[in-house]
Design goal:
Radius of gyration: 15 Å
Low-confidence stretches: none
CATH topology: Rossmann fold
CATH class: Alpha Beta
Number of domains: 1
Mean pLDDT: 88
């Protein structure tokens, strides 16, 4: 899949970026996300939880995005994100954000269950709660979910239908 129709940004908030320890890692990450979003030519959906709204450096980037407040690690549970994507006819999404082992992982899993074609922006997936060298392990787990999407999708239909 080459034609991304929407970008989903997960929890790039002051709280979560503050968990990225070591050698200016959080500042570097925020700038990388901000610079990337300037290049995006599709809708951006920015999800955040009760810990806070989008990071101020992201808010200053001159791009439009829909804010989605979530109460679950997944961006798709008890939010209107799925409805907004469906309304726009979007089925190919790119996901990036924090935390690989929780919010990003569960959002990828739910996106696949809902039938979306998902691309991971591996360079912009972070996690401050696990050792940095473990992030690729979680990215691999997400890739396996995406690669096995038909099996997961049909399992979801069987348990929900």
């Amino acid at each position: 899949m080459n034609n991304i129709q929407a970008v989903i940004v997960i929890d790039v908030t002051p709280f979560y970026t503050s968990t990225l320890k070591g050698d200016g890692r959080s500042v570097k990450y925020i700038l990388e996300v901000a610079n990337y979003l300037k290049t995006v030519d599709c809708p951006i959906f920015y999800t955040y939880d009760a810990t806070g709204k989008p990071h101020s450096k992201i808010q200053k980037v001159n791009v439009e995005y829909d804010e989605i407040k979530k109460i679950d690690p997944s961006a798709f549970v008890e939010t209107d994100l799925h409805k907004k994507l469906q309304k726009r006819g979007i089925n190919q999404i790119e996901i990036l954000g924090i935390a690989a082992s929780c919010c990003v992982y569960s959002s990828v899993h739910h996106a696949v269950e809902l039938g979306y074609d998902v691309v991971l922006n591996e360079n912009l997936i972070e996690d401050g709660w696990i050792p940095e060298h473990k992030i690729p392990v979680w990215i691999q787990k997400m890739k396996e979910i995406i690669e096995n999407r038909e099996e997961i999708f049909f399992h979801f239909l069987n348990i929900s239908g």
